[in-house]
Amino acid sequence: MRLFVALELPDDAVAALAAFREAEASEAWRPVRDEALHVTLAFLGGRPEEDVERIGSVMRSAARPVPRLALGAALLLPPRRARVLCAAISDFDGALGALQADVSRGLGDAGLYEPETRPFRAHATVARLRSRVRAPRSARTPGPEPLAFAGEAVTLFHSRPQPGGARYDALVRVPLS
């Protein structure tokens, strides 16, 4: 199973990201579906089904409120040879970064994940570069509406590649209250 842990976004943040995606629409970008808009905390890759409950246990241990977030500027990632169009996520009090660090550390300690060496950069991907297309040097707009929001839940998703974009099935959902 191809798995990842992500922060789910509230409906108003998804709507603002969708509007940003539409403002940036061009032949270069393949849009991400609304139901696929999230903030990835840990990409686990291929894992056996029996790992799901252990991953859920780590998520429940790491869960904490993430109350002060906002949609930020447009980003092209990676900065050199961009392949994705994103919106930065502003993490005003560091709660999202702390949640990601705890999830990453917990999964690593459980032998379920090799933590990233690069620093966490909170973002939501809204479009992916089409094959054989050169990425624009910058986004056309400064980014989405700078909407403030709180994280809703940490969710373990099963990613199922399909024509037109992957489908994400929620396997474990831990509300952040």
How would you characterize the overall build of this protein?
The longest helix has 15 residues, at 95-109. It contains 3 helices and 9 strands; from the N terminus they run βαββαββαββββ. A hairpin with a 6-residue loop joins β4 (69-77) and β5. It has 177 residues and is of the alpha+beta class. The model has no long low-confidence stretch (mean pLDDT 94). A 5-stranded antiparallel beta sheet has the order 2-6-5-4-7. It has a 4-stranded antiparallel beta sheet with strand order 3-1-8-9.
Percent of residues in beta strands: 35-45%
Report Rg.
16 Å
Shape: globular
**Helical amount among residues, as a percent range?**
10-25%
Q: What is the assigned CATH homologous superfamily? A: Cyclic phosphodiesterase
In N-to-C order, the SSE pattern is: EHEEHEEHEEEE
Tell me the name of the CATH class: Alpha Beta
Largest sheet: 5 strands, antiparallel
Number of domains: 1
Helix count?
3
State the low-pLDDT regions, or none.
none
Q: Specify the CATH architecture.
A: Alpha-Beta Complex
CATH topology: Cyclic Phosphodiesterase, Chain: A
Average pLDDT reading: 94
Q: Span between N and C termini?
A: 29 Å
Supply the helix-strand structural class: alpha+beta
Give the tally of β-strands.
9
Oligomer: single chain
Strand order across the biggest sheet?
2-6-5-4-7
